[in-house]
Predict the 3D structure of the following.
Amino acid sequence: MLKNTLQGYGWISIVLHWSIALALFGLFGLGVWMVDLGLYDAWYHKAPALHISIGVITVSLMLVRLLWRWTNPVPKAFPQPALLEWVAAAMHQLFYVWVVALGVSGYMISTAEGDPLLIFEVLAIPALDLDIDNQADLAGEVHFWLAWSLIGFALLHALAAFKHHFINQDKTLTRMLIPTQKKELNNE
Ligand code: HEM
Ligand code: HEM
């Protein structure tokens, strides 16, 4: 029930999938909101500090999830055209790359002036002296495009999940909500 099988996801993958998805949507909303705050707003410093702390935790969880994926079976897709199966698998891989790239670009924005990254004022990740001109602006531009495209891909990915559920009527969505029981497998 904790580990994946070739037929379905276990609890660890399911909990990681939904908590990371929730955190990513939250980070996106927080990011869009905080860049428009005025200097005298009470959240002017607090919001980026929260964004950075939750961001680092989310990217770390994504790396844990990648390790979990590499050490567990990946459930087989339900029958569908080969092209769609390829697109879905490519999209899943892209999510890992995008989230890690958001972490790297976020780190480069926050440490551009040599300050460390502070995680809830408990842990400090030191700045690297990268010596890139306009580092904060360049990394900010990359971070912006990665964040918006991630949300676009996530919406397509969610639409695909609903298509599986309502049109194909297979278990793609339900097996990402609760682990597939051995009993059900025997009935298939
Ligand atoms: C290690 C993780 C992260 C760090 C250190 C970080 C850091 C930052 C910083 C410093 C900014 C302010 C940029 C500016 O003032 O122009 C920012 C903006 C933003 N971040 Fe993150 N971030 C991280 C992860 C994420 C993730 C995972 C998302 C997911 C969607 C995200 C979405 C955004 C958005 C939408 C903005 C506003 C961009 C804009 O309009 O310029 N961030 N982030
Ligand atoms: C930013 C948000 C999201 C990210 C980054 C994300 C990422 C992923 C990844 C990487 C997988 C492959 C399995 C794994 O490696 O754990 C996956 C599977 C899945 N996701 Fe998401 N997801 C997000 C949001 C959503 C949403 C909103 C829905 C549905 C409404 C959804 C439904 C599913 C389903 C049904 C699967 C299983 C696909 C299969 O078995 O082939 N995801 N997701």
